[in-house]
Design a protein that fits this description.
This protein has 315 residues and is mostly helical. The protein has one domain. 78% of the residues lie in helices and 0% in strands. It has 12 helices and no strands. The longest helix has 29 residues. The two termini are 15 Å apart.
């Protein structure tokens, strides 16, 4: 049986890469007027509310059409006890912990550092997937992991002087990668039975509630009079595009293509983010950063070849 090409979802995943790559510079600029955690709390509130409205609308449309709705937006599978437990921990790890570390990390380091560290996510996903028994890693795959690790060392060890001004932010972004990896693999089982809209929306709501409660005192201290219209607009677009649309695309990709192939699109995010940061924020494109970017991408390419070779050997 020949599988139909997935060009549509691939094109959407490229759009996701552009959105997430640009989002680094957008939020970095916004942090100059709104501190990271209250900014992220407001962003999560907007995105979670939008997801909740979308879930309600999808359910209503499905009932009106007799269940004839794309599985991206609605499925009829009932929630089991394990599903509810998974939704809870995925919300706390994939949104509360991830967003806390991500926002604080991006604020404390450069856009290019953060993007390059996040760009190693496919390696983390593949390694964790092998660790929990989802797939075996070929020798070439391990070489790719080592090359990517060397690339990160160039970025945070030489390019940013690890242990210097940005070490705190670099470490926080690394922790966010671990959270995102756990969330990606944990959500894969749920998305096989439930719609990406429901899984992404419900886990975001679960993570957003404690996040907003903790950040509420900082939200109330925001000097609204000194926040520009540009920042408010960027806040809305970051919520709707980077959290709502891009998350939905990402987990639709996991549903259609699987976590390994979908996560490979993260390879392109550092290139988009570094280019936009250099042109917009005038961040320097130093030789260590360019070398690190090349090494990270080379390592990710090797892990991709290693996975394909292992898949061919399994048939």
């Amino acid at each position: 049986m020949t599988r139909r090409p997935q060009w549509g979802i691939d094109a959407l995943l490229v759009l996701m890469v552009v959105i997430w790559g640009a989002n680094y510079s957008v939020i970095k600029r916004c942090f100059a007027e709104i501190p990271p955690q209250p900014f992220n709390a407001l962003r999560l509130t907007i995105a979670s509310t939008t997801f909740y409205a979308g879930i309600r609308l999808a359910r209503r449309r499905a009932l009106d059409s007799g269940g004839r709705l794309s599985p991206v937006f609605y499925t009829v599978s009932p929630l089991t006890t394990r599903d509810r437990i998974d939704l809870l921990w995925l919300g706390l790890v994939g949104h509360l912990a991830y967003q806390t570390c991500f926002a604080a990390g991006v604020n404390a380091t450069s856009v290019s550092n953060a993007a390059l560290i996040i760009g190693a996510t496919p390696v983390a996903v593949a390694t964790m997937s092998a660790f929990v028994g989802h797939e075996r890693i070929a020798p070439l795959h391990w070489i790719g992991i080592a090359v990517s690790a060397l690339g990160i060392d160039f970025v945070v060890g030489r390019g940013a002087s690890f242990g210097g001004a940005t070490w705190h932010g670099d470490v926080l972004v690394m922790i966010s990668v671990v959270c995102w990896t756990a969330y990606t693999l944990g959500a894969a089982r749920l998305i096989a039975r439930h719609s990406p809209l429901y899984v992404t929306g419900m886990t975001m709501i679960i993570g957003a509630v404690p996040y907003v409660l903790v950040a509420l005192p900082q939200i109330l201290r925001i000097d609204v009079a000194h926040v520009s219209a540009w920042t408010w607009g960027a806040l809305l677009l970051s919520a709707w595009l980077a959290l709502d649309l891009a998350y939905l695309i990402y987990y639709t990709g996991i549903q259609r293509l699987g976590p390994a192939r979908t996560s490979v699109y993260s390879n392109m995010i550092p290139i988009v983010a570094m280019t936009i940061a250099a042109l917009w924020l005038h961040e320097p494109m130093t030789l260590p950063k360019v070398t690190g970017a090349a090494a990270v991408l080379a390592g990710l390419f090797l892990t991709r070849i290693g996975r394909q070779k292992r898949l061919r050997e399994s048939f």
